[in-house]
Amino acid sequence: MLSGVSVVSFTHFLQGPSATQILADLGADVIKVEPTGGAFERGWSGPDAYLDGESVFFLLGNRNARSLSIDMKAPESIELLRRLLADADVLIESFRPSTMDRLGLGYESLKEINPRLVYCSLSGYGSDGPYKDRPGQDVLIQSLSGLAHATGGGEAPPTPVGASVVDQHGAVLGALGILAALHGRERTGRGCLVESNLLSAALDLQIEPLAYHLNGFRGERSPSRISSMYYKAPYGVFPTADGHICVSITAPPVLAEVLDDPWFATVGDDEVLARREEINERVAGHLVGRTTKEWEDLFTERKVWFAPVNDYAAVVDDPQVRHNGSVLRFEHPTAGEVAVLGHPVRYDGERPGLRSLPPALGQHTRDILAGLDLTPDQIDALVERGVVRG
């Protein structure tokens, strides 16, 4: 899809590398610019997850890219990068605001030498404003944005989601912005500045409940653990005799039949929202009386909306997950067999595959510099002085 599009990535942590990997999966030629000591994610992994010294956190977000390892504090490095960017289609960066400007690689500077450049900045809160210098990190943004406060039962404390959902949504929005800008450039001949941030991503994840709130509909977390401040019951996860099951919105007449309880038939259509706690508690009282498998069989037969509550082992083994080919496996020369999530979208029935492994640090430095017309002797001299690594 993006064959022929050149991307230079100054990204680290998760939001930036994940956004860049989306473009790389689609065929873009991605150059990952790293310091000579390596990108942050090479030396960090959430649960100290390393495969023979290779960070799983790095391996999950940097496939199909090339690595240029360079000391960005060296004056000659900035000149080399400006030469590289003079012909690039996209620059994507996730430094704190103003960092790229201080390096001489800000948008205003680069658009003078490359007016077609699509320049994407990913940050925590935005490039300006009172929070621009705060650390932007997923769980912090979940808390600030209201997402944690909206999650959990009425008696539970505010509860962050158990994954870096804001980082990943911010990555997708960044990639979306880049693709839109590339499409616009086809008409105008000009690039533009694309900005995405974690705070905006977290708010976008809450497009529905925030719209209710903004228009005067106030909600409270449910004491019976309805998994929304605004939805009718039943809606959420319920204990069974031997585990849990998730049940989504089901009309009272259906509940009366499926649960063999005439009480539900006494709830009028105009009472369902006002009596949602009664409904939820009564559903819970029924579900705890049978096993999960018994309810799954009955709900399947009666076409009730439900889902199993899978742990990650069950997710990986789920028939639909396996059918969709969601897990990508590859053999790495150091880490051995690696399993990560693949590209989430199919095109003409196919998912983009693995063109190249997550690169070793500086693996492509020499090739990239040679593409800037540097001679082997010039490249050797840069390596010897520690300006680049490769």
From TrEMBL:
Pfam families for this protein: CoA_transf_3
GO molecular function per UniProt: CoA-transferase activity
InterPro entries per record: CoA-transferase_III_domain (IPR050483), CoA-Trfase_fam_III (IPR003673), CoA-Trfase_III_dom3_sf (IPR044855), CoA-Trfase_III_dom_1_sf (IPR023606)
Superkingdom of origin organism: Bacteria
Keyword Hydrolase set for record: no
Membrane-spanning residues: none
Protein name in the entry: Crotonobetainyl-CoA:carnitine CoA-transferase CaiB-like acyl-CoA transferase
